[in-house]
Amino acid sequence: MQPIDPTKKTALAELLNRPLSIGGKPVASRLWLAPMAGLSHVAYREVLNEYGGCGLMFTEMCGAKSVPTENPRVSSVFRWREEELPHLVCQIAGANPEQLVPAARRVEEAGFFGIDINMGCTVSGIVKKNAGAALLKDPAAALRAAEAVRNAVSIPVFIKFRTGWTPDVTPAVKLARQFEDAGVDCLVFHPRVAPDKRTRPPIREHIRAIAEAVSIPVFGNGDIITPEDCLDMLETTGCTGVSVGRMAMARPWLFREWTTDYTPPETCFRDYALRLAEALDHHYDPSRARRRYRLFTIYFAANFTFGHSLQSKFLKAKTMDEIRNVARNDVKIDMQLAKRPNMTLYNI
Fold first, then answer.
1. How far is CA 329 from CA 37, 267, 310, 314, in A?
2. CA distances from 304 to 32, 51, 250, 299, 343 (A)
3. 228 CA to centre of own chain
4. Partner residues linked to 304 by β-bridges
5. Cβ–Cβ < 8 Å for 91, 39
6. Cα 36 from Cα 188, distance rounded (Å)
7. How far apart are CA 208 and CA 205, in angstroms?
8. DSSP secondary structure letter of residue 225
9. The pLDDT value given to residue 197
């Protein structure tokens, strides 16, 4: 990727570093880590935190039914480091207040910055349980969920949602206003229709429609690959800030790079590949650590013009030691970078 124009870089940093508070709590920047199943786990967040620049981090999606009795020492998703709690939001997915309220209370007791209700996930297993994006099919149920969680906790309440199940953004705009009236503190909006998943580009005009409809903060999300993408979203939609997902897995230093004058060193990709392996080894058993590293390679390989060969070597590794050997020997300083990383090019 080409370096951003210095004038645009300065403009972006100024926008992202504007003072902001959510629910009366200050937030360090307006550039956030999006919740991602299998990716925004405790090991990755530890590495991300070392780079800095991220205003808030969101956990993986946690099942609301499991959270009240979940043991963080053994849970694969409801797990955290105490030092990250002041800037960590826990995302939960549930179908109704009976599931969501006990989970929300547990999240508050644990000391999280806030709680995020997932109303955007389109995975069939979640939708079949009437959670995630399924709640958008029944706006009354979505509103009851928001009201119940808001009344149950005192920490900031976030809602991650999307355009809905049809291209008409009007129902989402109406729901956004109702969420605000219910006391929700912040909305994170993904401007795609649920059935599309990622087959079509996000419609950023929908972010503007949501942002103009409410007075609470609205963060935009979707296909933020370059700093120019981030600046364009901020300037054209009027959103409060930006939530970055898959590109943050490819380059975790982007939060610091886009909010300061930081330039990553030549060894940044190798350093990152090795550091994530170390963090996964620390937080998970070898089997789970390897599975999570394999998932990470989808986005890491997208950094490079010929990422297929590198990913293939990672996927052939049978142990974390072998993974480290690939990172050490095959992630080279002079590898050709993709002009625009394609986050859908690879799989496992």
1. 29, 12, 10, 11
2. 24, 21, 10, 10, 11
3. 19
4. 337
5. no
6. 13
7. 5
8. -
9. 66
Whole-angstrom Cα distance, residue 113 to residue 260? 24
Give residue 1's pLDDT.
62
Q: Is 239 known to be catalytic?
A: no
Question: In the prediction, which pLDDT does 344 show?
Answer: 85
Q: What amino acid occupies position 113? A: F
- Distance, CA of 311 to CA of 292 (rounded, Å): 14
Token couple for 110 = 């644990």
Instruction: At 86, list the tokens.
Output: 């002041």
Predicted confidence at residue 198, as pLDDT, reads: 72
Shortest CA distance to 21 belongs to which of 33, 30, 12, 13? Answer: 30
- The single residue of 121, 230, 239, 268 carrying the catalytic annotation is 121
User: What does 119-181 look like in DSSP terms, one character per residue?
Assistant: E----HHHHTTT-GGGGGG-HHHHHHHHHHHHHH-SS-EEEEEEEESSS--HHHHHHHHHHHH
Of 292, 266, 269, 270, give the one whose Cα is nearest residue 279. Answer: 292
Say what the pLDDT of residue 79 is.
97
Positions of the chain with pLDDT under 70: 1-2, 197
Distance of alpha carbon 175 from the chain centroid: 22
- DSSP-derived secondary structure letter, 84: G
